[in-house]
Design brief:
single chain; Aspartate Aminotransferase, domain 2; 8-stranded mixed sheet; 16 strands; binds pyridoxal-5'-phosphate
Length: 406
């Protein structure tokens, strides 16, 4: 029997011991996740399947396919479908509180792909990039693929510490700074408006790009965050990553890059686009209908309603059930609560015990580019409903207490 340590990911091959099954048998894998029966996995950072709008996409796809317009099946325009970009620009303008021009948008197959393409086009192996500590752990994986040198900078409650950034800029010449300025993954922190302005000035003075991963900008549950970092851009030094993964469905693999046309030209004229044409024209055409029919708007307000309740439920369960040694900031948006435990606790080492008690959390060390943050963990409130969130926290609390962490 194939055995594996639970990591929230599926093994891709299964073996069994009997009869013809003795041979290697390919498991039919349909999604990225495989949560063992009975496990509550607060480590995963995705919407629940029940929040994925099948009917809405069914309607939009039927509408688009009934238009007798074969263009959505042709190679796409390099910046992305023009009508889709117009619809997206208008919709973002309404939500961002700042004008978004369709010419400043480039369609991607998601924020991850946008980030990967930025690395391809702007960096060489060995180049330096700056990140926050903690940082979105899968962005760190992309930087490792491109063999970039990563230097991390601390954050406080107002976001990235700009004094430390300035000190780092005196020593290093980074190609770009990767930042999650709003409802940060994993910390939940939002960069203040004052720091946004200063960061833009620094990027111009020290000649580096800011790659702003703003995928959580529209998921705000209390007060609205400052406008996106891209709307503070004065010198053409910002590239903003947006995505339908968090506001519609990750399986669509659809997102966008926003930046000055001079920057976007690098993408439009890249070999990838020259050869394959604009990215994801078929899905863009369908999602254009989702936007134009107002369905995206309704879905976003439904998501905000559900996530607001789930964020409050997770926070209240943590307050009620966890030992006082655990501290955290109230969630205002995004998907996550970042908990801090005493420095003597290494969350990664707790995992086997937690898994035996059918609970998983994401250990802080994954979000560190220096092997630190071991006494932190990321909990997600987007995947589970209120009852499961409370049950998950109850299991975590029991486990910590029984391990003597009170
Ligand atoms: C900060 C951040 N960026 C990017 C992604 C991935 O986005 P996409 O599905 O658009 O590639 C995630 C998903 O968890 C995320 O949290």
């Amino acid at each position: 029997m194939f055995t594996y340590t639970y990591s929230g990911q599926k093994p891709s091959l299964l073996t069994t011991q009997t009869g013809w099954k003795n041979k290697l048998m390919l498991s039919i894998q349909t999604t990225q996740l495989n949560i063992p029966t009975g496990m509550i996995d607060l480590g995963i950072g995705q919407p629940s399947p029940s929040l994925l709008p099948l009917n809405m996409l069914d309607k939009a796809a039927r509408h688009r396919l009934s238009q007798a317009d074969p263009s959505l099946l042709a190679y796409g325009a390099e910046p992305g479908d023009g009508f889709f970009r117009l619809a997206l620009a208008e919709w973002l303008t309404k939500h961002y509180g700042a004008t978004v021009n369709a010419d400043h948008l480039f369609v991607t197959t998601g924020a991850s792909q946008g980030l990967d393409l930025i690395c391809t086009l702007f960096t060489q192996p060995g180049d330096t990039v700056l990140v926050e500590e903690p940082s979105y752990f899968l962005a760190l994986r992309i930087f490792a693929d491109h063999r970039l040198k990563v230097i991390s900078l601390p954050m406080d409650n107002d976001g990235l510490n700009l004094e430390v950034l300035e000190a780092a800029l005196a020593q290093h010449r980074p190609v770009f700074l990767y930042t999650v300025p709003v409802f940060h993954n994993p910390s939940g922190i939002t960069l203040s408006a004052t720091r946004r302005r200063r960061l833009i000035e620094l990027s111009e003075q020290h000649d580096f790009l800011i790659v702003a991963d703003e995928v959580y900008q529209l998921l705000a549950y209390n007060t609205a965050p400052p406008p996106p970092l891209i709307s503070f851009d004065r010198f053409g030094t910002v590239l903003s990553l947006g995505s339908f993964s968090k506001i519609l469905a990750p399986g669509l693999r659809l997102g966008w890059l926003q930046g000055q046309p001079a920057l976007l030209d690098r993408f439009i004229n890249s070999g990838l686009l020259d050869s394959g044409g604009g990215l994801n024209p078929f899905t863009s055409a369908i999602v254009r209908r989702v936007i134009e029919s107002d369905s995206q708007e309704k879905h976003l307000s439904q998501l905000n309603h559900v996530y607001r309740q789930r964020a409050a439920a997770l926070s209240s369960a943590l307050h009620r059930l966890l030992p006082k040694i655990v501290t955290f900031m109230e969630p205002n948006g995004g998907f996550f609560i970042w908990i801090q435990l005493p420095e003597t606790i290494d969350v990664e080492r707790l995992l086997p015990d937690l898994h035996r008690r059918h609970i998983n959390i994401q250990p802080g060390v994954k979000f560190s580019s220096q092997g630190g943050l071991r006494n932190y963990a990321r909990l997600c409130f987007a995947y589970y409903d209120i009852e499961d969130l409370a049950e998950g926290v109850a299991r975590l609390a029991r486990a910590l207490t029984q391990m003597g962490h009170t």
